[in-house]
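ok new one. same drill as before - structure tokens go in, u give me an amino acid for every spot. 504 of them this time. try not to just spam alanines like last time pls lmao
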């Protein structure tokens, strides 16, 4: 599937290029429009595409490739990075890297769908980026070494490249085994896997002004740490995770960095992110599904509480040892990672069955839950090579309901509220309301005595028409009794009210 999609992307690039743009076809054997990739770049004009036939590119002219400041695209013709390989053949005696961006390249300088291997350099074993901000998509950067910093990628001199669907694997450096950022650089990563450095942490920075930003990224299994140092606070937000990507490796030798069907990077467990990394699903997992009994405390999570952690106790089915649980893989809902410490093993509930105790940051769990009332939380992770999973329910209190903009209709000039007349058991009331001008807005449900039951919206709102759902519960997550209730909208100018009849 990925091959077809990426080939289509390249076609779109070609069709949308200026009429004067050209595609320069390059082959590993030297045939085509130019004998090497470098020669193709020299011939290319802004907007052109240097299109690489499948194969392995080596030697002079096919490594240490500079774009020379040109807004051109270098891409695999097939769209499959496993079949289009830049083998730098670097070693302790020979510095040889894949790509060098140092001539002010911007987003129009695009690298797409290639694999860069065996690079070797002082900085940036695979890619070196200095005062440049290229776009890099669907690439594999594996087995590259930097003697100083940035085994896979080095960014310096206020570089701001944007990288998406990249897989980093077994790169090495003293500082930043996969990625190093310094000198006011700010690389941005989307849907990428940064994994298994042979030396160095996954990501290191040279100063406080050079912190990379990650969205829907999986950083896992790196020699000297994953989400460490200046990027630690990005774990568990924006879809970021620390889970075994479950590469196929020997199960798919032609495409080893594809992922198993049950991988957390497949997009199934994180549909909001989609596919993470450069490899699509390429094998079926042989992991056994292990049943777990899960107990989460406290049972009630109140937004207004000041507790820092929630605690989870995990028991496994017979034949498995909770001491073998890899805490770095344990998550809630596949999104919120467990803290690495404190953790412990013991019979905490006194039932004669050993438990593994782990903790999660309470706020991260609340941020990952969109509902109020009783909510199921799924806890999963690895025990040995097998995946365990179990669930518990907790009561979430005090979260503000999610509002949705309503685009239809003319611009409003007065506040208005339009709740449904009846709310029955098992349904939700969608309340449409209008805010005439930007300012504070509060939407509260009251009972007939005037007591505030719950507040659905309280914020500084833009002007417009919105809707919000009420599930018929009070602020504690308990269903309200049958009777008459009032939805009241208070804006900076006026208060309007609508009636709802709750029928149980």
């Amino acid at each position: 599937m990925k091959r077809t999609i990426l080939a289509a992307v390249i076609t779109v690039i070609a069709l949308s290029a200026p009429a004067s743009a050209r595609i320069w076809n390059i082959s590993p054997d030297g045939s085509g429009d130019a004998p090497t990739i470098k020669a193709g770049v020299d011939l290319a004009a802004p907007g052109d595409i240097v299109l690489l036939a499948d194969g392995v590119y080596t030697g002079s002219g096919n490594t240490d490739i500079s774009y020379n400041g040109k807004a051109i695209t270098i891409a695999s013709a097939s769209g499959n990075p496993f079949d289009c390989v830049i083998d730098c053949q670097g070693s302790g005696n020979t510095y040889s890297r894949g790509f060098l961006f140092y001539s002010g390249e911007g987003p129009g300088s695009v690298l797409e769908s290639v694999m860069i291997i065996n690079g070797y350099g002082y900085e940036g074993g695979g890619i070196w980026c200095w005062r440049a901000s290229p776009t890099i998509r669907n690439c594999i950067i594996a087995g590259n070494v930097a003697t100083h910093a940035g085994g896979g990628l080095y960014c310096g001199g206020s570089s701001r490249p944007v990288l998406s669907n990249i897989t980093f694997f077994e790169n090495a450096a003293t500082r930043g085994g996969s990625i190093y950022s310094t000198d006011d650089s700010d690389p941005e990563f989307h849907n990428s896997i940064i994994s298994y450095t042979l030396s160095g942490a996954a990501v290191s920075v040279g100063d406080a002004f050079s912190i990379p930003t990650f969205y829907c990224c999986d950083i896992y299994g790196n020699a000297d740490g994953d989400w460490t140092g200046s990027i630690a606070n990005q774990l568990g937000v924006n879809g970021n995770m620390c889970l075994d990507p479950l590469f196929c490796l020997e199960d798919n030798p032609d495409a080893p960095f594809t992922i198993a069907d049950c991988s957390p990077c497949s997009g199934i467990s994180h549909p909001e992110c989609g596919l993470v990394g450069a490899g699509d699903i390429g094998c079926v997992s042989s992991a056994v599904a292990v049943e777990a009994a899960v107990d989460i405390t406290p049972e009630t999570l109140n937004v207004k509480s000041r507790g820092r952690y929630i605690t989870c106790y995990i028991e496994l089915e017979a034949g498995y040892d909770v001491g073998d649980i890899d805490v770095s893989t344990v998550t809630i809902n596949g999104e919120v990672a467990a803290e690495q410490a404190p953790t412990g093993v013991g019979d905490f509930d006194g039932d004669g069955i050993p438990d593994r105790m782990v903790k999660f940051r309470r706020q991260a769990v609340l941020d990952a839950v969109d509902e109020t009332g009783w909510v199921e939380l799924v806890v999963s992770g690895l025990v040995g090579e097998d995946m365990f999973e179990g669930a518990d329910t907790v009561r979430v209190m005090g979260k503000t309901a999610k509002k949705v903009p309503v685009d239809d209709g003319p611009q409003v000039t007065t506040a208005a509220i339009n709740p449904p007349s009846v709310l029955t058991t098992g349904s939700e009331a969608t309340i449409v309301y209008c805010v005439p001008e930007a300012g504070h807005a509060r939407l509260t449900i009251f009972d007939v005595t005037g007591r505030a039951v719950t507040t659905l919206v309280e914020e500084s709102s833009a002007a417009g028409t919105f809707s919000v759902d009420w599930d018929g519960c009070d602020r504690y997550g308990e269903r309200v009794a049958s009777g008459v209730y009032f939805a009241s909208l208070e804006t900076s100018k006026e208060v309007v009210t609508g009636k709802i009849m709750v029928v149980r």
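The chain has three domains: 2-283, 289-397, 403-503. and btw The chain has three helices and 44 strands.
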